[in-house]
């Protein structure tokens, strides 16, 4: 009788599952022992049952084999990881360089440069994109201008209100003119007095300096001969 192929899935019956585990565990431990003896290999096998019971086999020492495994994986996996990271960084840099070059070429085309290599379809696509960009730019510009005009109108209305308020204040305040008595200067009241004060008597005197007028007259009378 030929045995059917065992399906690789979990056995639902607990009893059958436990029996299968015991049989295959013993077979696995036997194969590990045979491998270590026949091939002079360092083999360590660790198995935990569904209930958490430990089963192990070690050709030398399980702890020694585990430490050896950790050292090996740490060195090789670390070097492999670093190398993979370097290669990944290089690949990313190359990809970014290509994208940057493509963007620079597209930018030059938008500026109207290097159009000799463009086909009719590419030129039409650039034209459509530029028209859309112009529509967006003009729309944004119009919106900003409308906002500025609205702000200026609000400012104008505020200034008008302030101006009207000042006019109302000026109308409500009465015009008070202080009447002060006119005072006429004393010089204007007595003009004759000023003229009299300004009159000066003048008289011609001939003689040596330092002599008074009376002495001069006496000397002249003495010097005059009798007729």
From TrEMBL:
Residues 171-227 are annotated as: Disordered. It holds the Pfam family K-box. GO terms for biological process: positive regulation of transcription by RNA polymerase II; regulation of developmental process. Residues 79-106, 142-169 form a coiled coil. One of its GO terms (molecular function) is protein dimerization activity. Gene3D superfamilies: Transcription factor, MADS-box. Residues 86-176 form the K-box domain. Residues 1-61 form the MADS-box domain. One of its GO terms (cellular component) is nucleus. The keyword Hydrolase does not apply. Keywords: Coiled coil, DNA-binding, Nucleus, Transcription, Transcription regulation. It is found in: Nucleus. The keyword Transcription regulation applies. The lineage of its organism: Eukaryota, Viridiplantae, Streptophyta, Embryophyta, Tracheophyta. PANTHER family: SERUM RESPONSE FACTOR HOMOLOG (PTHR48019). This is Uncharacterized protein. PROSITE patterns: K_BOX, MADS_BOX_1, MADS_BOX_2.
């Amino acid at each position: 009788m030929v045995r059917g192929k065992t399906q690789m899935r979990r056995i639902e019956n607990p009893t059958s599952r436990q029996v299968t585990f015991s049989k295959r565990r013993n077979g696995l431990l036997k194969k590990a022992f045979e491998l270590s003896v026949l091939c002079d290999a360092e083999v360590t096998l660790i198995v935990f049952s569904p209930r958490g019971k430990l089963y192990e086999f070690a050709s030398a020492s399980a702890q020694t084999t585990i430490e050896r495994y950790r050292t090996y994986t740490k060195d090789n996996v670390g070097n492999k990881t670093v190398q993979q990271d370097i290669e990944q960084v290089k690949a990313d840099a190359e990809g970014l360089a290509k994208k940057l070059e493509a963007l620079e070429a597209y930018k030059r085309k938008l500026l109207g440069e290097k159009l000799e290599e463009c086909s009719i379809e590419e030129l039409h696509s650039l034209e459509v994109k530029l028209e859309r960009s112009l529509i967006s730019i003009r729309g944004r510009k119009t919106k900003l201008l409308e906002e500025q005009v609205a702000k200026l109108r609000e400012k104008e209305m505020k200034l008008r209100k302030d101006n009207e308020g000042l006019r109302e204040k000026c109308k409500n305040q009465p015009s008070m003119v202080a009447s002060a008595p006119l005072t006429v200067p004393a010089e204007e009241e007595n003009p004759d007095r000023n003229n009299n004060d300004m009159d000066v008597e003048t008289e011609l005197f001939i003689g040596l300096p330092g002599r008074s007028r009376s002495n001069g007259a006496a000397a002249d009378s003495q010097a005059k001969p009798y007729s």
